[in-house]
Structure formats: C-alpha cells, structure tokens
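Support reply, case 0932

Customer input (verbatim):
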Amino acid sequence: GEHMPDKQAFVGELVRVTAPGGRIIVVTWCHRELKPEEASLSLKEQRLLKRINDAYFLPDWCAGSRYEELLRAQGLQDVRKADWSQFVAPFWPAVLRSALRPRNLLRMLTAGSSTILKGAIAGLWMLRGFQKGH
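Our regenerated output:
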C-alpha cells in the first residue's frame, strides 16, 4: 500500500480481484495513529516522512486505521489491524550493518554514489521514525 498513491483505488482493486470468501492481507508502511485532538502529524513528523518518501519515491503514507476504513467501506467484514513495528524495527539497523560489510560496500559503489548516499540517509530516517514512534 505504501507504493500506491490512491489508497481508495488500491483497496478497491484488492476487493475486486479477491474471490468470494477470500482473504485480503495488507502489509504496508503506515504512519502512527493520530490522537483524537490531532488533525495531522506534527510538522517535524511530516518533514521526516517527506524525506523518506522522496528518497524511496513513495507517495504519502496513511495511518493503519485508514486502510480499515477503506476496507469496511467496501463492505468487508472481520477487518483487523495489527501493529508489527516491534518486529520490523530491528530490520533497519540490520540493513545498515549489512551495508557496511566490505563485499556489500563494493556492490553499492557500482550502483553510483548518489544511490548509495540516498539509500543510507533514508535508512537512517526510517530508523529515526521507528525509534520516535512516527
């Protein structure tokens, strides 16, 4: 879902191609849920997500509850959501450690310096977002 700019169209297509009685499982990057008194993410959080999205060529993210709303609006029942952040959080430090291995550094150098720098910085931003609960 994080690669789809139109979340409603994305969910609609999932529903369209799913057989009657089938299951839809969406595993995607989402930003944190807003508190009842919040209209949006903080400007700092928005800037961080924009940097990540620009680095990975992604459209805007949404909260997991938005997918729940869209699925229910399609008439689906038994819609559930789970936050897997605690299981995903170790991924980003592992990616950074892997990138620093000599054989991987050599491979990355052949990809071009701007690609390496952009990927490394974006990985750090993702790590920061997970650590701060964005």
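We compared this against your earlier run and they match. Two observations from our side: The two ends are 17 Å apart (CA to CA). Residues 48 and 129 are 7 Å apart (CA to CA). Please reopen the case if you see a mismatch on your end.
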